[in-house]
Amino acid sequence: MPSLKENVELLRSRISLFASSVRRSPAEITIVAVSKSQTPERIAEVVHAGIKNIGENYVQELQAKYKVLSHLGIRWHFIGRIQTNKIKYLVPIVYMVHSVDRESVAIELNRQAEKYNRVLDILLQVNTSGEQTKAGVLP
């Protein structure tokens, strides 16, 4: 069975081949490993194998993992649904928020980021179908 490092190398190789086939640079593509319910030890293994971008779904798990792993230079991504009252805990830790689905969340992220004199990258979730059961802002 291949090691974690070998699997990461294989993944990068496959990304490189695919990127070339669509005339893109592999350097434009970021691998984000999701750490949901993984131990800090397992996340450290992934980082040592070459993945520095780690995504987490839950604020409390992110805080706990950040405290243990802050020495590894991880670029944390928040990928879960955000509760406005927990944003203040995210902003000092995360590199990017992937799950902004409401204007109020974007406004609060910006307000908190200003306290740290930073601009926080976000990905906006857009509900293109207009379905009431789907999250996201309307186009």
Give a structural overview.
By secondary structure, the protein is α/β, with parallel strands linked by helices. The chain contains 5 helices and 5 strands; from the N terminus they run αβαβαβαβαβ. The protein has helices spanning 4-21, 40-48, 59-69, 87-90, 103-115; strands at residues 32-34, 53-56, 75-78, 96-100, 121-124. The protein has a 5-stranded parallel sheet with strand order 1-2-3-4-5. α5 links the parallel β4 (96-100) and β5. The chain is globular.
Helices and strands in order, then pairings?
Blueprint: H1 4-21, E1 32-34, H2 40-48, E2 53-56, H3 59-69, E3 75-78, H4 87-90, E4 96-100, H5 103-115, E5 121-124
Parallel strand pairs: 1-2, 2-3, 3-4, 4-5
The percent range for helix content is: 25-40%
The biggest beta sheet reads: 5 strands, parallel
DSSP strand count: 5
Q: Report Rg.
A: 17 Å
Note the beta-strand portion.
5-15%
Please tally the helical runs, counting DSSP H or I stretches of 4 or more residues.
5
**Rough outline:** globular
Distance between the amino and carboxyl termini: 46 Å
Order of helices and strands: HEHEHEHEHE
- Overall pLDDT, averaged? 95
Task: Note poorly predicted spans.
Answer: none
Strands of the widest sheet, in order across it, are 1-2-3-4-5
Structural class: alpha/beta
